[in-house]
Design goal:
about 40% helix; Spore Coat Polysaccharide Biosynthesis Protein SpsA, Chain A; three-stranded mixed sheet; alpha/beta; single chain; seven-stranded mixed sheet; binds 2-acetamido-2-deoxy-beta-D-glucopyranose
């Protein structure tokens, strides 16, 4: 029957094709329902720690505080991403949905196409922006201004997709439960949160939040996309430029200086450093494995490791 269509067979073929299409659609939608069921079951399992009614728990999960942590990296930094997944994948926060995503510009090498695609298939935590890798030429602008379109999903009634968006450094360690704890009492609109620069300053209105990691509420993300102010002031130290936009646009009436819950690692001591202490949201300038390890040890991150006959860690 390949290319040869005998006269008179036309109708038959149309009917057969039609039946075929109908069955494909039916099959696909059944699968989708099954898939949706599966994923909602998985969600319930993840959220319901007790024997609470699973519907109730799912409903309350919609009231969770939603935070996106975008970490700019480069496509080839597989190791760093692997490490950060370890750091963030092991932190759970009740009452919060926190997504960590790695952000870079267009891929530039042939091998990246396959390696990054594989990474996405496994982790689904990568955002590739429409830009060329650059420093101080607008990657931060591209990040924030692209998010509303990237995250727009008409089939998802949850709005905004995130209450807060963070731009974080890849040498910063965020302690997610503490982060959420400090955010809970804060406004979900017009908020700019972080470690104010210069280091001795305690006034979040003078001048801007350090690139170690800062947070804005979703309305500011949308403003960055829509306003003409960022568009005409793009070049320069990105985090300072970010602060300039907010000042010029008279945005971020609500500001929160997270100093000294956020700070640089104690060594080498500067005016930006602080000792490790329990009241920590973020430690920055973790430039070596040794500094990471000492920080993770200090915060007892493996204290919940389950005993098992399969391993023994002294
Ligand atoms: C990035 O890649 C997309 C899709 O391949 C292309 O359309 C776009 O022009 C590229 N952007 C830049 C800035 O190179
Ligand atoms: C880590 O665990 C030790 C021993 O249980 C405890 O004394 C210390 O306060 C804990 N540190 C933090 C930051 O929770």
């Amino acid at each position: 029957m390949k290319n040869v269509v005998k006269p008179g067979n036309g109708k038959k073929i149309i009917i057969i094709s039609f039946l075929f299409i109908v069955s494909v659609i039916t099959f696909a939608s059944i699968n989708e329902i099954q898939f949706n069921d599966l994923s909602s079951i998985r969600k319930c399992a993840a959220y319901s720690h007790s024997e609470e009614n699973s519907l109730l728990t799912m409903k309350s999960s919609e009231n969770d505080i939603r935070i996106l942590i975008g970490i700019p990296t480069l496509p080839d930094n597989h190791q760093r991403r692997h490490f950060l997944r370890l750091i963030y994948g092991t932190q759970a926060v009740a009452g919060a949905k926190i997504d960590v995503k790695f952000v870079f510009c267009n891929l530039t090498k042939e091998d990246q196409k396959i390696l990054i695609a594989l990474e996405i298939m496994l982790h689904n935590d990568i955002i590739i922006l429409n830009c060329k890798e650059n420093m101080d030429k607008g990657k931060t602008y591209t990040y924030f201004s692209s998010l509303p379109d990237i995250l727009k999903d008409d089939s998802n009634p949850i709005n905004p997709p995130y209450h807060y968006v963070i731009k974080g450094d890849d040498d910063t360690y965020f302690r997610l439960p503490k982060l959420v704890e400090t955010l809970m009492p804060l406004p979900r609109e017009d908020l700019y949160y972080g470690y104010v620069v210069p280091c001795p300053s305690m006034d979040p209105f003078v001048h801007y939040m350090s690139g170690m990691g800062y947070l804005v509420s979703w309305d500011i993300v949308e403003w960055i996309k829509d306003s003409h102010i960022p568009k005409r002031h793009m070049i320069g130290p990105e985090d300072k430029v970010f602060g300039d936009w907010l000042r010029e646009g008279r945005r971020a009436k609500n500001r929160y200086n997270a100093k000294w819950s956020m700070y640089d690692y104690p060594e080498p001591a500067t005016r930006c450093t602080h000792e490790l202490w329990p009241d920590t949201v973020a430690v920055h300038r973790l430039k070596t494995q040794e500094k990471w390890v000492r920080t993770l040890e200090y915060f007892n991150v493996t204290h919940n490791l389950k005993p098992s006959k399969m391993y023994h860690i002294p």
